[in-house]
Model the fold of this input.
Amino acid sequence: MELYLIRHGQSENNARPEHLRVEDALLTELGHQQADLLAQWVKTVELDRLFSSPFRRALQTAWPIQQASGVPVEVLVPLHEVGGCMSGPGPDNFVGCPGIRRSELLEEFPGYQVPEEIDQTGWWKSKPAEDDQQVHQRATDVLDWVRQEFAAGQDKVGFVMHADVTRHLLNNVARVTSEHSHRILYNTSVTRLSIEGEQLALELYNSISHLPMSLTSR
Done:
């Protein structure tokens, strides 16, 4: 199978100083442009399944992909960014937030497939920030699930997700690296893995071939 790890488009938080960031930022106008161009490229891939993190910036990035390809978006909570849904000026002051609630998600993104765990208490449910061990276990569980569900077949699966958790999954769980893996992933960049049983290969890393240079951002 082929697994496409897709970073969301530029969010309002990407364009703000760190102390002004909010818990669930939307895409900027640039981010929407990036997502539209990404969708046209992803359409040519002919994905079989498309999953998204529950953060709005990922959900918004997935929307034009669904519209262009016809592949429904399935919300997958474990694709969320490192830490969870938190507010505050920095890690020492973070407070857990609910995350998007079920009714909000269904209203804002009609047609998305929403798991039962996302209810009116949100998807993060105001829990404390996850620690490094929890991040590692979550990324491990995601890769194990992918192998169990898809590795024996020829499916093409897309994950719309986030930079830090993508790097953790690649470097610390899958143990695949690129000579450029120290660099921050571009917004809407695509990383492609080929997985067959326990065999895993990195075939594409941090690609933004669908974007003109004038629309690139990190």
Observations:
- The mean pLDDT is 94.
- The domain at 2-215 is CATH 3.40.50.1240 (Rossmann fold).
- The chain is about 30% helix and 20% strand.
